[in-house]
Amino acid sequence: QCQLTEGGCIVAAHIVCTKIAKKVKVSVSTVSFTMKRHSEPEANSDRKRSGRPRATPEADVKFRRVNSLRDRGLTVQQLQAQLNSGHSKQVSASAVKRRLCAVSLTGHVAERKPLLRSQNKTKRLAWTMKRHHWTTEDWKTCIECEAPRPKIYHCILQRHAVPTGMRLVGQGFILQQDNDPKQVQAMPTLR
């Protein structure tokens, strides 16, 4: 598309279209189209483009934007279901995604959550505060325990933690754990 300044140069020059095209380095059809449009009252302003109307009106886009900002956990599929429930015209998930991207709401990976809940931290602090008078030698007999999942916790405990405690500390070592659900849960049984 020719810029407005180029359009002015083309009309002002009154040269043959081919010479103008070579001078401005555009096609001949662009020159003739620009001259024709420049003679119209609206000059070189952008015209309404033809094409299929959008599936989601602007009001819906604003509503979806506000909705997704209120609840950042909503997925595109959930937003699509909300949008489709109120309208007879169905909107695809990709259309919702494009409209959200247009208003700078792109998907992000959720922020990592802390592995310990506040209750576990409180229990650990209480356990430690009860033993604040311990010496370094006493603390060397304590093994800290953090288990990733309940099913493998008991396996780790039986195969690794207890033998390691016996080997490193000896008989009478203390295994510190904070009664986290995955640590006190009974072994799963197969049916």
From TrEMBL:
GO terms for biological process: DNA integration; DNA transposition. One of its GO terms (molecular function) is DNA binding. Signal peptide: none annotated. Residues 36-59 are annotated as: Disordered. Residues 70-129 form the Transposase Tc1-like domain. Residues 37-48 have a biased composition (Basic and acidic residues). This is Transposase Tc1-like domain-containing protein. It comes from the Eukaryota.
